[in-house]
Amino acid sequence: MKVDIYNEKGESSGSATLPKEIFEVPMNADLVHQVLVSSRSNIRQNSAHTKNRGEVRGGGRKPWRQKGTGRARHGSTRSPIWKGGGVSGGPRNERNFDREIPKKMRRKALFMVLSEKARNNLLIIVDKFLLEKAKTKTMNELFKKLPLNNSSRLVLYSDGNNNVYLASRNIKKTAVQRARDLNIIDLLNNKYLLISKDVVKEIENTFTKKGE
Q: What pLDDT is attached to residue 8?
């Protein structure tokens, strides 16, 4: 598949041929959905936690004797029916949300989403990111020149090009990620994918057998 390459002025300066094993993969919505749900489950933080009656403080003494008071019998003031008592059936942080996803499935779904971006002209490739200093203003001006239509975009940068991250991280509707950490969640959360020519090669080396 051939796509246009843009320069720092936002003008088309040529074209590039993308590897078909990454950018020409037929779409399978069921597989993409399965991998997306599993990936979100794996990053879910299980922080909600309530204490049961054995974990709350106090309630060691029987509040009153069993018989003769005319009141209901109780063994502890930390029973779930008492104020300040334990919680019955509340959320516990022992629950495990992790789901195992085979490596082949993860990569296949990733290539499907990348292919859809390319087919729908949502993949923007620039010749290179010319950033001598990490200036947000410079990167923001580049975004305005490119056909991003003021929509959300994911910017991928290669290792050693940290200026791209520093210059893009505070811009609205912009997510920044290293190319080797590319994942399906970030791809689907953003409409456009913005990369440079060298990042295409890095994606190929990272996620295909050629790189392995």
A: 83
- Residue 184 CA to residue 200 CA, distance in Å, equals 16
Ranges of each domain in the chain: 2-44+101-207, 46-96
Looking at every residue in the chain, the average pLDDT score rounds to 91
- In the chain, the N- to C-terminal Cα span, in Å, equals 23
| Average pLDDT estimate for 201-212 | 80
CATH number for the region 2-44+101-207 comes to 3.40.1370.10
**CB count, 10 Å around CB of 189?**
11
Packed helices 103-119 and 29-42: angle between N→C axes, nearest 10 degrees:
120
The full 3-state SS of the chain, as one line of letters, equals: CEEEEECCCCCEEEEEECCHHHHCCCCCHHHHHHHHHHHHHHCCCCCCCCCCCCCCCCCCCCCCCCCCCCCCCCCCCCCCCCCCCCCCCCCCCCCCCCCCCCHHHHHHHHHHHHHHHHHCCCEEEECCCCCCCCCHHHHHHHHHHCCCCCCCEEEEECCCCHHHHHHHCCCCCEEEEEHHHCCHHHHHHCCEEEEEHHHHHHHHHHHCCCCC
Give the tokens for residue 89.
């059936």
**Residue type for 110, please?**
L
Between 23-27, 94-98, 183-187, the lowest mean confidence (pLDDT) is in 94-98
